[in-house]
Amino acid sequence: MEALERALQAEKGCAEILHQIAAVRGAINGLMAEVLEEHVRTHVADPAITSDAARMLGAEELIAVLRTYIK
C-alpha cells in the first residue's frame, strides 16, 4: 500500500499504478482466503465444537462476510 501511495504522490504513469493496484488486490484476496479458511477451521469445522449453536454462529458469520465480499 505504501508503494502505491508513493507512486500516486510521484504521479507515476497509469500503467505502473494499475499494476500496483492489481498487486495490492491480489495480496488482499490472498489474505482474505487465509482468514476465511482459518475461520472455517476454527468456528465451523472444528470437531471440538460440540454446540450446534456455536457452529451455526460461525457459519452465519462466514455467510455475512462472504455476502459483503461478493458485492
Which structural traits does this protein have?
single chain; 71 residues; mainly alpha; Methane Monooxygenase Hydroxylase, Chain G, domain 1; Transcriptional regulator; Metal_Tscrpt_repr_sf
Provide a descriptive summary of the structure in words.
This protein is an all-alpha fold and about 70 residues long. The chain has a single domain (about 1-70), classed as Metal-sensitive repressor, helix protomer (Methane Monooxygenase Hydroxylase, Chain G, domain 1, Up-down Bundle). The chain is built from 3 helices and no strands. Helix 1 packs antiparallel against helix 2 and helix 2 (about 15-45) runs antiparallel to helix 3 (about 50-70). The two termini are about 20 Å apart.
CATH superfamily: Metal-sensitive repressor, helix protomer
In percent terms, what proportion of residues is strand? under 5%
Please identify the top-level CATH class.
Answer: Mainly Alpha
Count of alpha and pi helical runs: 3
Helix-strand pattern: HHH
Low-pLDDT residue spans: none
Tally of strands: 0
Give a quick account of the main beta sheet: strands, pairing sense, barrel closure: none
Helix content: over 70%
CATH architecture heading: Up-down Bundle
Protein name: Transcriptional regulator
GO molecular function: DNA binding; metal ion binding
Pfam family, one: Trns_repr_metal
InterPro entries: Metal_Tscrpt_repr, Metal_Tscrpt_repr_sf
